[in-house]
Design a protein that fits this description.
Length: 421
C-alpha cells in the first residue's frame, strides 16, 4: 500500500471539507512515534491535537480498555449505569479546582462538553447571554462555532449562528491588547449589546489553543472572577486542550488564585478514546432537570476505563513534573534559536504547552509563510508539528509527555535546524 494511492482514494471517497494536513497515512504508533504505510518513521509532536499526553498506546491504557472489552462495551449510562462512570466522576471531583463540592457529567467530544456547559449555565442563571473571546476555539457544532473567535476555516459558509453570543478581546501583549483593553471590551459589550444581568456565563480558555497558546494573565482572571461575582455571571473555563498535565498541572486553572464555576475537558482525558466532561460546583451542575443532560455514547465504558488509566499514569509517572521538565528544555532551544532566527517574535510557555510566533522582521507583520516553511522542513526531517494562531503564524508543540528523553533531544535538534537553516 502506498501513500499516494491512499491519497487518491481519499479524494474520491471523502469530502474536501475534511481538511487533511499530512500526505502520509498512519499504519502503527507507539508512544511518540508514528509509522506510515510505507514504513517511514515520524516523531509525533502533534499527538492527535493534544489528545495523547500519555502517548500512543500506553500499556496501562491498553490493558484497561482490553479488560473492559471482556465485560461490556455499551449500555448507555442513562439506561443502565455502571460503577466506573461514578468512580471517574469522584476522581475528577476531587481534583477539579472549583469552590465547594463538585459534580461531573461525561460526554463524547470537547464541543459536546462546551455545549452542555452553556446549557447548565443557562439553566442555573435563567439567562441567555454568553460572552467569549476573539481567538478562542470551542468546537465545530453550531453553538460552539458561534462561541469560537476565529472565522477561517471554522465558520465560512455555515451561518447564521445561534444568538446571544458576544466576543470580547483576549489579552495579547504582542498584538497590543492589554488586560485593561480586554476588560474595556467587556464593558463595551455591556453598554452596546447585552446587559450584564442577562449574561449567563463568560467562557474562555486559560491558554488559548487554536488561538496560539496565549496565556491568560493572572490579573485578567482575577478581574473576570470579580466581574462575574458582581453580576451573578458564571465563569466557565475551557480546558479541553490545556488539561491533564499539559501545562505542568492537571488543569491550567490551578495556576490562578481564582476558581471557575464550570470546567470543560476532553482530548487527553481518555488517552485517544472519545470522552469529554463538564465539572463544576455541585449546585450549578444540578440545575438541569433529570434527562436534560446525556447522550447515547456519553461516558462510554471503554473510554471511561481508559480515563481511569490516564489518571493513574499521570500520577505514577509524575507527568506534571515531566511537562515542566520537557517544556523548560524546549524553551531553551527556542531562545537559542531566536538569536539566529529574526522571525521569532515571541515564545510562550506554560509547562509543555509551548508555542513560538513568527513575524516578518522587516514589517512586523505575522508571517504564515515562514511558519509553513519551518513546519515543512521539520516534517521532511521526520518531525510532525502543528501550526495555529489567528494569522496561522504560530507553531505549537504537543508531544506526548511520555516521550523518551533521547527521542525528545533528537526532535529538538531537528527543530533547531528547521529554524536556523
Amino acid at each position: 500500500m502506498k501513500n499516494n494511492e491512499l491519497h487518491q482514494r481519499r479524494l474520491q471517497a471523502t469530502p474536501r471539507g475534511i481538511g487533511v494536513m499530512c500526505g502520509f497515512y498512519a499504519e502503527k504508533a507507539e508512544n511518540a512515534t508514528l509509522w506510515d504505510v510505507e514504513g517511514n518513521e515520524v516523531i509525533d509532536f502533534a499527538a492527535g491535537i493534544a489528545v495523547l499526553n500519555t502517548g500512543h498506546r500506553h500499556p496501562k491504557v491498553m490493558a484497561a480498555v482490553e479488560k473492559q472489552l471482556q465485560a461490556f462495551t455499551h449500555t448507555a449510562y442513562q439506561i443502565v449505569p455502571y460503577e466506573s462512570y461514578v468512580s471517574l466522576a469522584e476522581r475528577i471531583n476531587a481534583r477539579v479546582p472549583v469552590t465547594g463540592p463538585a459534580k461531573t457529567a461525561f460526554f463524547s467530544t470537547g464541543a459536546e462538553a462546551v455545549e452542555n456547559a452553556v446549557k447548565i449555565a443557562r439553566a442555573y442563571t435563567r439567562r441567555p447571554g454568553v460572552i467569549t473571546f476573539g481567538g478562542g476555539f470551542h468546537g465545530r457544532t453550531f453553538m460552539t462555532m458561534a462561541l469560537t473567535g476565529k472565522v477561517a476555516p471554522y465558520k465560512i459558509g455555515f451561518g447564521p449562528f445561534p444568538g446571544s453570543i458576544y466576543h470580547a478581546q483576549y489579552p495579547n501583549t504582542l498584538h497590543g491588547v492589554s488586560t485593561g483593553d480586554a476588560l474595556k471590551s467587556l464593558e463595551r459589550i455591556f453598554k452596546a449589546d447585552i446587559a450584564p444581568d442577562q449574561v449567563a456565563a463568560i467562557l474562555l480558555e486559560p491558554v488559548q489553543g487554536e488561538g496560539g497558546f496565549n496565556v491568560a494573565p493572572a490579573d485578567f482572571m482575577q478581574a473576570l472572577r470579580k466581574l462575574c461575582d458582581s453580576h451573578g455571571i458564571l465563569l466557565i473555563v475551557d480546558e479541553v486542550q490545556s488539561g491533564f498535565a499539559r501545562t505542568g498541572k492537571l488543569f491550567a486553572s490551578e495556576y490562578y488564585d481564582v476558581k471557575p464555576d464550570l470546567i470543560t475537558m476532553a482530548k487527553s482525558l481518555a488517552g485517544g478514546l472519545p470522552l469529554s466532561a463538564v465539572a463544576g460546583r455541585a449546585e450549578v451542575m444540578d440545575a438541569p432537570a433529570p434527562g436534560g443532560l446525556g447522550g447515547t455514547y456519553a461516558g462510554n465504558p471503554l473510554a471511561v476505563a481508559a480515563a481511569h488509566a490516564v489518571l493513574d499514569v499521570i500520577e505514577e509517572e509524575d507527568l506534571c513534573e515531566r511537562a515542566n521538565h520537557l517544556g523548560k528544555h524546549l524553551v531553551e532551544v527556542l531562545n537559542n534559536a531566536k538569536t539566529q532566527c529574526p522571525y521569532i517574535a515571541e515564545i510562550r510557555a506554560q509547562g509543555s504547552m509551548v508555542a513560538v510566533e513568527f513575524n516578518d522582521p522587516n514589517t512586523g507583520a505575522p508571517s504564515a509563510e515562514f511558519t509553513k516553511q519551518v513546519q515543512d522542513k521539520a516534517l521532511a526531517a521526520g518531525l510532525l508539528l502543528l501550526t495555529c494562531g489567528v494569522y496561522g503564524n504560530v507553531i505549537r508543540f504537543l508531544y506526548p509527555l511520555t516521550i523518551p528523553e533521547v527521542q525528545f533531544r533528537k526532535a529538538l535538534d531537528i527543530l533547531q535546524q528547521s529554524l536556523t537553516h
